[in-house]
Amino acid sequence: MSFREKYARLGERYNVLEKPLDRFFCPLRKMAASFARGRVLEIGVGVGKMLPYYSQGVELHAVDAVPEMVEIARKKARELGLNVQFYVMDAENLEFPDGSFDTVVSSFVFCTVPNPERAMREIHRVLKPCGRAVFLEHTKSDCRLLNWLFLRPLDVLLGFLLEDNTLRETHLLARKYFEIEHEESHYSGIVRLIVGRKV
């Protein structure tokens, strides 16, 4: 079963599944959204967990590969009174012209995208020159012991449930494509906030 099918089946239950982590992740989501300016694209919007944190001044567009998730996010945007343009679209194949956005935001997406390198190239392509890419992502920890004792078992579980890969090194991939302006490591590198500029 593909990640699309698994997330489609989860639907609204995804909120329940992730609720225990909200107190850890929501402050980081708020921080990530604070870097968004101008015409903004969020890839992998999911159930819309980032939506409450964007500034009212941005022009927000959001994509997800799973139609059921897009509908949940659209409903949340209506409840929040937000004007958001939603699209069903893969991160690896963004159907926007080159240089379309001032900011692209990715929040806990690169652990799931089947082809991370291709998705990173697409983010780079749709950004305007000097545009900003903001990543809030699960990554391989700086601590080898933590990787073996915690992340590897979690990787097996989440891989089975959601096709997630918690051991990806998205922070290193981002450095290949962007000039890094800001980087934070949280929980021994299990979560990182990375802000890069297209040069």
UniProtKB/TrEMBL annotation:
Pfam family, one: Methyltransf_11
CDD domains registered for this protein in UniProt: AdoMet_MTases
Gene Ontology MF, one: S-adenosylmethionine-dependent methyltransferase activity
Annotated Methyltransferase type domain residues: 41-135
Listed SUPFAM superfamilies: S-adenosyl-L-methionine-dependent methyltransferases
Top-level division of the source organism's lineage: Archaea
Sorted UniProt keywords: Methyltransferase, Transferase
Presence of the UniProt keyword Transferase in the record: yes
InterPro entries reported in the protein's UniProt record: Methyltransf_11, SAM-dependent_MTases_sf, Thiol_S-MT
Keyword check for Methyltransferase: yes
One GO-annotated biological process of the protein: methylation
Entry protein name: Class I SAM-dependent methyltransferase
